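Table S7 (text form). Paired inputs.
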Amino acid sequence: MFDVAAREALLSRLVAAARSDQLVVGAALLGSAARGEEDRWSDIDLALRLAPGADVVQTADRWTGRVAETELVVDHLDLRASGALYRVLLLGSTLQVDLSFWPHDQTLAFGAPVEVLFGELPVEVLFGELPVEVSAVGSTEVDGDAMAAFRMGWLYALHARSALGRGRVWQALWMLNSLRDVVVGLYCRRLGLPVGEGRGVDRLPSELLPALAASLPVGVEARSLQRSFKELIGLLLAEAERQHLPGSLDLTRVISRLARVEPST
């Protein structure tokens, strides 16, 4: 589990870097930090408005390198929503760092409160879910869909951990069900079965089904959800290894550690 003081120190460094970056003209906090509700499970969620003409992907890559100068970045996932690139970093400490990069002429659209730190940011707060496109960055040697799915798996695992840690059992159940869907999707991709909406799951080989069944919680009770979490993490990592998805030993260790959270009572 990451250290809260270290998270705050990293955020301070990132905000200072944004203020000194000539290609960044504004920044804002999102999520629990913007609501004044940070706790030990909160991640870093920082939005950056770019200068006119700044390349979004190149800037995101440069900022990823900046974080990697002081932190172990074990993997990252790119999400695109409302015209922005969200670079989701998974650190060796298990901290999630969300950096969103907004083109200068793009209105910053969020589904949550925003705390503007500096600059002029044209902000629109939306209600409901934002349309999201997932991409598997840096996975040219494998099926991009499989790598994107795997990365969504560790993202769901991160949110399952925080939900369990906060005692939000129904949210945890939702995240664990989504994680199981990722595992099933990886099985189906490997075996050439339909992936969407569970259309291929009943055609999976019988030897895969007992482990899937074992990953189902017996109820919405924290200990049962924790057991389900551990089972699903094991299935996700085993399938990633079976498909030879790229990932370091550090990444495997970090994902394994996510299920060790003690549920809130």
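Next pair, protein 2 of 2.
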Amino acid sequence: MLYCTTSQAGDATLFGQAQAGDARSLAELMRWHDGLVHHVIRRQWHGSLTYAEVLQEGRIGLWRAILGFDTERGFAFSTYASVVIARQVWRAVAQARGEETDHGWPGQAGVSPDPLTYLLEQEVQARLWAMVAQLPVRQREVVRAYYGLAGQRAHTLAQLGRRLGCTRQGVHYHLRRALLRLRHPAFSARLRALVGRNRRQDYLQALRPDRRR
């Protein structure tokens, strides 16, 4: 393996010491995870920068990742640091080309600049996609088209009715059934835990429409 995981490289105490200003702890973590920098930058486009220049930027990213890592958030350090390193390198490449670097990633306006928020957003999106993929075919098709998933534009119920060859009411029925299924604890528990909506009252509220059928 090219780099150490958090459990191999040190525990929360070591990160805490580095973040409190202990130069030895910081240097130790930098050394242990230097292989991660090489691993990340080898997969990136360097533009006009040399490998040595990109490596320097990557190490700056690693330094920032060590100082910003929250050991209690549940992410592996290598996962968190990879995002920080890649963004640091991308900014350097973009600046060398005279480009603006306000957004988190090229071509992704509105992406959060905070790595932890970005990782959480990606995990929420992946969990949502996994939930939708478990729906019956027609319900899955309606949800994806109605909400504009899979890179397509959002459709109205009337538009979906014409596309699927059924009435607006028929589309609404499939959409309602899909949403009821997605709200069920068997489907939504992991997603709700990610977004902090997994209290008992949250589930009761989500299941309430079933009583009105």
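The chain has two domains: 6-96, 115-212.
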